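P.,

For your records, the input lines for the assembly:
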Amino acid sequence: MNENKIIIFDTTLRDGEQALASSLSMEQKLRIAKQLARLNVDVIEAGFPVSSPGDFESVSTISKEVRGPAVCGLARAVEKDITACGEALKGAKRPRIHTFIGTSQIHTEKKLRKSEDDILQLVKKSVEFARNYTDDVEFSAEDAGRTGKDFLCRVVETAIKAGAGTINIPDTVGYTVPEHFASIMDLIFERVPNVGDAVISVHCHDDLGMSTANSLTAIAHGARQVECTINGIGERAGNAALEEIVMALKVRKDLFNVYTDIETSELMRTSKLIRDICNMPVQPNKAIVGSNAFAHSSGIHQDGVLKAKTTYEIMTPQSVGLKDNKMNLTSRSGSHMVKSRLASLGYEEADYTLSDFYTKFKNLADKKGTVYDDDLITLMESKSSEDLEDRYVLDYLNVSSGKKTVPTATARIVIDGEVKQEAACGDGAVDAATKAIDRIVGFDIEIEGYHLDSVTQGREALGRVAITASAPEGHFVGNGTSTDIVEASAFAYMDIINKIARMKMFNKKIPPKIDISL
Ligand code: KIV
Ligand code: ZN
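C-alpha cells returned:
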C-alpha cells in the first residue's frame, strides 16, 4: 500500500447508528452501505453483530450484497462477540473484525474491574481468536486518549504481536486536543517496537469540537487510517466528519501530502441520504455539507466571487457534488450582484436603470430578508400595485384528521371575486389541505421540501411553515404563519400559488436555479 494513502474507515452504520433515536432497518442500512461504496470508502463498519439479531442480519446482508469496500463488524474482546462477528461477515469478500477493550485506568478499574495484566491477556486472546475468522483484524484501545503512556504502548505491542493488522487509537470521549494527540502518536511510533507491522488508525469524538483537528493531527503524525462518519453523527457530540477530513486533506494537500480514494463529488449526495434516513438535520453552517457552506451573503463577498470565485472559495462546490455556489440576495447584496442575477433571469441592462431598480430591490429586501428570483421578476414586471395583490385568497379551510380517520380537507378560495370550493383526502392533514387547494387551482405543483419552525414559545406558539416547490414556471419558496400548523401550511402553499400566478400573468418562467444541489 502506498504510504501516502489514507484509509477511510466509515463507521456511520455503527458509531453513527448507535446514537440515533430509533435504529435503522436492514433496508435503510443497505441503502446507506451502497452509497458508501459509491463514495468509495475503504472500510464500512456495518454494525455490532452480537448486539441484536437486527444488527447481525444487517452486517450479514451488507457483507453479501455490497462490493468494493471491506466490510467490518465490531466485537468486544470476548469470544461470543467475535464469533457472532465472524459468522455475520461470512459473505464478505474482504471481512474485517474490529475488536476492542477499554484501556484507560477509568475504564479498566471502574467499568471492567480488571488488572492491566488481565487486559493484556484479553487483548492477546481476542485478537488471536479473531484471526481464526479473517486475516484482517483491527484492535482498538478504547479511551486511548486517557490511557497511561506505558500501558498504551504495551497494549498496542501485544495486539500487533497477536496478529492485528490495524491498531486504532480512539479518543473515545473527545478529551484530547491536537498537541496532546500528536504526543500520543509520537509515543506509539517511537516506543512500540513492532509498530511497523500494523497500520495505525485514529478515531476521534467531538465532545470539545476537536475531532477533525485531532484526526488530521494524527495523520500528520503517522496515522494512515481515519475512522469517521458522514455528517459527523455518532455518540454524544458525534465522531469526526468524513467530509471534513477528506476535503481538508484534498484542499491542503500542500501540507499533508497524502490522499484518499474518496469520490468527493458523492459527498453531498451521501450527506443528504444520511440526513434523511437518519432524520438528523445538518446545521446550515456545517463545513462542506451545510446548506450555507457555499453560500455568499455579504455584498463584499458576492462582489469578490463575481470577479473571481477563488476570492472566497477554497474549494469548488462541484468538488463536493453541488452544481454551483449560492448567492443569497439580501439587503447586503450589492448592485453588481443584483445585475448579475437579473442577467441570469434574461433581463438585459438596456431593459432597466440599475440605480432605480436597485433602490426598489433594497426596499423589498429590507422588508423581506431574502429576495428570491420570483420577487425580482415581480419587481421588474409589475406595472401597478394591483399586480402585486394575491389573486388567490384562501377564504375557508376545514381539515379533519386523527387516529382511524381518513384525513380530509375542504377548502374555499376566492379567485378574482369568484368563489370555488373543493374537498380532498390525503396522507395527512397537510397533504389533504394542499390537495383540496390543488383541485381548485389546477396548477402543476410538486412539493419538494417542508420545514416547520416554532416562532414563539408555549402551547399557543406561532408555527412558521416554509414550503419549497417546483412548477413549470420555476422553483418557489412559500411562507405561512399561524398558531395552527395546518393553516400555516395552507398559507405557505397559497403563497406559492400566488407567486406562480404572477409568473403566469407576466408570462415568465424562472430558469432552473443553478444553486440547487442534486
Ligand atoms: O469511541 C470508541 O472508542 C469506539 C470504539 C469501539 C472504537 O467507538
Ligand atoms: Zn466511537
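Two observations worth noting. The chain has three domains: 7-278, 295-371, 388-506. The chain has 18 helices and 16 strands.

Regards
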